[in-house]
Design goal:
This protein has about 550 residues and is mainly alpha-helical. It contains 18 helices and 6 strands. Helix content is about 55%, strand content about 5%.
Length: about 550
């Protein structure tokens, strides 16, 4: 097995060796590779993170020109939505029949609370059916948008939902609720982390299978990171070799001495200056070669472990499947997420109705709108989704769960998988019908940034890195309340005001953010020309770079 891997890697190394003649062809290939990487997109929303992808693909179409579905105009929509769901559907129907015609404010409030509970019981029965291909598309729309009764929406709203793009053409990990349960049931995505997860006793063989799966998840991060490092070091070697060859070509070019043909001239002054440069390049290449050898050993080891674990899992008699209790746990987690998007005093009503929906199409949490805002965030804060491992920045977009709630609070549920801290995706939650979609997404990204930085600093989170520096500001100002909430609000100001040169943050906070969450280079250059405050911060960056990043 290892011999096969070695031969593949040797072939790869041989392919990357650059022949002396076609140096221009090599540069052309390199440019072509860079151009193709520009258009990379994920294989699937649940697929392993591709560390070569550096940005979101631009959204060219937010809505279809024609209807993507006609279900909202189906006169039997309500009947089909509730059909086959048993007592939970019957209870939901009875309460809706009482709630809709009710005029008394007190009674209406009571019915609304009862409807909330009844709706979630109904969804509990509906969620496991998302993996079934025969499930009616209307049931998918109920789970996706919270639309139980289309007559509760205006004609314009019906038209908007009918033209919403259904399929995930971008393959970005941005999920509607029906898609989330589908991939959870299919085993593509692991269960969300919970504080308490009571597990029933299982057989030893099942426990062994689960343990092997966990080990494979841990090793996956090491394997992917090693492969990414290996690719980067190969690219660096190719660049160094190209530069070395160009300098050697110049060094070896000797013009004929006039009147002394065929004798050639000695090195010119410019050629003499190339000799120490060439020696330096050779030293750098030698160092790069050591790194490649070390990374390859790590990559090969992780690859062999991966193959071994895969073989053991496939040979296992009891491959762990998602049980009903696991699905119930995930459902309860989703319900908790929905509550958190609304907050204690928010509107917890889960059914779509024109009474509570006040968004325009571009401010509604459709997948395309969310990806567009995430793209905007990354254009200002290019390291928003980056995690550092062994001095290498890995861009890892989290799973984004879109919940059909009227809440205004986006948040991070988990910064990464507990079994794979290197390359696993975190999970952020976005309400679909907030007052301000951009702010809700900014809150979630800020929460993600805070949790990733805190986990990285571990026990020293109050002393080191982003969280440590911000905590110093928080404690020096003797602020009260949860520190993370202050950070989130400051991050929103950072992304909406400070990036445009509008100074709203305290000087200390601005300095912390400038160093730990830097703007894109074009924004930094523009800001330093606008105001001396940003010029000073920019100069400090240059000073740190000159003093080896002190």
């Amino acid at each position: 097995m290892s011999n096969d891997i070695s031969s593949e890697i040797v072939a790869l190394l041989n392919d990357t060796e650059m022949p002396s003649k076609p140096s221009r062809t090599t540069s052309k290939r390199k440019l072509e590779k860079q151009e193709t990487e520009e258009f990379l997109k994920p294989e699937a929303p649940w697929a392993t993170v591709n560390l070569l992808i550096k940005k979101f693909q631009p959204i060219t179409k937010f809505f279809s020109d024609t209807h993507t579905t006609e279900v909202f105009y189906d006169t039997s929509y309500y009947k089909k939505a509730l059909n086959g769901e048993g007592e939970s559907a019957q209870r939901l129907h009875v309460l809706l029949s009482k709630y809709l015609p009710c005029k008394d404010v007190t009674d209406r409030t009571v019915y609304r609370q009862q409807l909330t509970t009844a709706y979630w019981e109904f969804i509990k029965n509906l969620a496991p059916k998302m993996c079934n291909k025969d499930t009616n598309s209307i049931k998918h729309m109920v789970l996706r948008y919270g639309i139980v009764l289309p007559s509760l929406s205006t004609p314009e709203q019906k038209e908007m939902f009918s033209k919403a793009i259904i399929e995930n053409t971008s393959n970005e990990p941005v999920y509607y609720l029906d898609e989330w349960f589908h991939d959870i049931c299919a085993g593509h995505i692991s269960l969300s982390t919970t504080d308490e997860a009571p597990r029933s006793k299982k057989s030893t063989s099942t426990d062994d299978s689960a343990r092997l799966t966990q080990l494979q998840a841990k090793n996956a991060g090491k394997l992917q990171n090693a492969e990414n490092m290996f690719t980067m070091q190969e690219s660096q070697r190719a660049m160094l070799e190209a530069e070395l060859k160009s300098r050697i070509d110049i060094l070896c070019d000797h013009p004929v001495i006039p009147a002394y043909d065929p004798h050639k001239a000695a090195y010119s002054e410019s050629q003499k200056k190339l000799i120490p440069e060439i020696i330096e390049k050779l030293h750098t290449l030698a160092k790069n070669n050591k790194e490649i050898e070390s990374t390859f050993r790590e990559f090969q080891s992780a690859h062999e472990i991966h193959n071994s674990l895969s073989q053991k899992i496939s040979n296992s008699a009891n491959v762990p499947a998602l049980s009903q209790s696991d699905l119930t746990t995930e459902f309860q987690t989703i319900r908790q997420m929905a509550k958190m998007t609304c907050g204690r005093r928010g509107n917890q009503f889960p059914i779509f109705t024109r009474e509570f929906f006040h968004c325009i199409a571009s401010e509604t949490g459709f997948r395309e709108n969310v990806i567009s805002i995430l793209t905007w965030i990354e254009s200002i804060d290019p390291e928003a989704f980056c995690r550092v491992h062994k001095k290498s920045k890995n861009r890892i977009v989290p799973f984004v769960i879109l919940l059909p709630t009227y809440g205004n609070l986006g948040f991070c549920w988990e910064p990464f998988d507990r079994y794979n801290r290197i390359t696993s995706r975190g999970r952020i939650v976005i309400p679909m019908y907030p007052k301000n979609l951009k702010n809700a997404i900014l809150m979630a990204v800020a929460d993600l940034r805070w949790q990733v930085a805190k986990e990285k600093a571990s026990y020293y989170w109050m002393e080191e890195g982003l969280t440590g520096q911000y905590y110093h500001y928080y404690s020096s100002r003797k602020l009260k309340g949860e520190i993370k909430n202050y950070f989130i609000q400051d991050y929103i100001i950072w992304m909406t005001k400070e990036c445009n040169g509008i100074q709203k943050l305290d000087k200390e906070v601005r300095a912390v953010f400038w160093r730990n969450m830097p703007f894109a280079d074009n924004i930094k250059n523009e800001l330093r020309q606008r105001n001396i405050v940003y010029q000073e911060l920019y100069q400090k960056d240059l000073n740190r770079a000159a003093s080896d990043g002190y």
